[in-house]
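Message: I would love a firmer grasp of how sequence relates to backbone shape in proteins. Thank you; the sequence and its tokens follow:
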Amino acid sequence: MGGYGTVPESSNSGFVQPQYAPNHSVPFIQPLPTETWAAGVCDCFQDMGLCCDVLCCSCCQAGRIWSAATESRPDHMSVPVCCGLLVAEYFIGGLANCLLTMYLRDNVRHKYGIMGDGCDDCCMSFWCTPCVMCQLHRELSKRGVTPGHVCCEPSVRKTQPIPVGVQSGYVDAPVCAPPQPVQYK
């Protein structure tokens, strides 16, 4: 008697019959993830404006990532998530941000078929929370659902022009950073 959830009887051929989902005539096979992350966890310094946002305004950036990841709403901040995270951090500290980041990383990973597992999400979110938030922001931006920035403009998209006659300058400096010296020839 081979029903759903039972081990099929083995035969001498070495072939195991596939399990079938209830009320379906075809095997239920979940596709394996084949994608990789657009950027690594340690690539958080590629955009210093985003890095500043995550470090200084992590609750608001988490609200933006939440809206982009779970609701597919680009450049929008979920105020309940932002305020809820602030209150939760008051009571249980940084663990609240770690748990939310772990949930968001798992959500994005499943939504876009990115390879990994829950243990990886947990470890990365616990020990590298700001870096994971930057990674999530970059991944969602690559997928066309840009979460946006809170305080600082992205340094990758908005650059300062180099004055005429200047050979070098700080072109990729974040907009919120103080002006950097320019070397004249």
